[in-house]
Amino acid sequence: MRTSELPSLNAIRAFEAASRHLNFRLAAEELGVSQGAVAQHVRGLEDRLGVKLFDRLPRTLALTDPGRRYASTIRRAFELIVEGTANVRPAPLRLQISVTPTFAAKWLLPRLPDFTAAHPDLDLGIIASERRTTFHSDDVDLAVRFGSAPSGPNMTVDLLFKEELIAVCSPGLVADAQLPLAAEALSGYTLLQDSHGQWPQFIETVLEHSAAGASTGVRFNQTSLAIDAALGGQGIALASRHFVERDLAAGRLVNPFGAALDRDAGFYVVTPRRPRHPGPTAAVKAWLLSHARA
């Protein structure tokens, strides 16, 4: 049979969708056409083939034996078309970015839908680890590193944001307290500690109070876990403002002291001076910087 003798592709698509849903209305919703259009396509296909494909029942459709065989064959044909189309398209370019677990969970992941929409041709692989990776041996294209500005002859460094450390807790935890809390009130709350151990410095520098007992509380190895505990009303955590800005804006967290500790440390975007994929790497870096400065 010549391709010119084949039934209409629209009619075949309508039949295939109807054979899965056994309902013209649901098939129409999937294809974005009217129910009448699907029914007309199927009737035309039956006339063209000279065979009845469906039994029309009061509330549903039932495939006839010829309809069942035809649906199976057509479905395999569509699967081959999908497979062939996927094989001919170039695979998306994969870039690897190394970040800390808290940066990944609290800053990067909430913004990923925007990245995917802006760069559908890029496949971003995320390595979340406290360990400092190397570009070549770990197959990394970009890194976001915390601390003082990295330096080296073979890397390019851009400041993403400086760390502004604030205390955060759920509004319910301090619902009966007068805000901002006085430093003396801190003893009545559980301090949620992380591996950075910044509570003593925060209490002494920002609250101007003795830090005796500031190392007690509940300890987590990741700041993201301390933030999650604060969201759950379990105590007060310290976190970079950039990691909790959405929770603060949404009212899920509050800053009970209304103060912040500005630190010399920051988060930096680091790329090789000669990246493997210059254009895509520059695009990802520009996207990171634009979101940090928005």
Automatic annotation (TrEMBL):
Tree of life domain: Bacteria
Protein name: LysR substrate-binding domain-containing protein
Family annotation (PANTHER family): GLYCINE CLEAVAGE SYSTEM TRANSCRIPTIONAL ACTIVATOR (PTHR30537:SF26), HTH-TYPE TRANSCRIPTIONAL REGULATOR (PTHR30537)
GO MF, one example: DNA-binding transcription factor activity
InterPro entries for the chain: LysR-type_TF_proteobact-type, LysR_HTH_N, LysR_subst-bd, WH-like_DNA-bd_sf, WH_DNA-bd_sf
Signal peptide positions on this chain: none
Family: Belongs to the LysR transcriptional regulatory family.
HTH lysR-type domain mapped to chain residues: 7-64
Transmembrane regions listed in the UniProt entry: none
GO-annotated biological processes: DNA-templated transcription
